[in-house]
Amino acid sequence: MSGSAIKQPPRNAEGFLNSAEDWSDRVCEALAQEEGIALTDAHWEVVYLLRDYYFEYDSSPAMRALVKYLKLHLGPEKSRSIHLLKLFPESPARVASKLAGLPKPANCL
User: Fold this and answer.
1) For residue 52, is pLDDT > 80?
2) Of 23, 39, 108, 109, which is the active-site residue?
3) Is pTM, for the whole model, over 0.85?
């Protein structure tokens, strides 16, 4: 990546993108850096699946729905809450949705 910072798309007061259509891998990397997260392949798996979920169901999943969706697509090991907490500390559904360029899930603080 070059020395210049990426121009961030418009975001709300909590830092979530105003439009999921403005998202890109580079935007995700910049958001992850703000959250203090170094993205790995495991992070990208969740981010891309979250985007699939959003465009399929027109909503960001809360934790329970996220776990069920990941279990369906990645299996039981990668869908455990403890695994997700290691990847996205504090609130996996909220933080992962933010990095995926999606609205904050309805049930997240």
Assistant:
1) yes
2) 108
3) yes
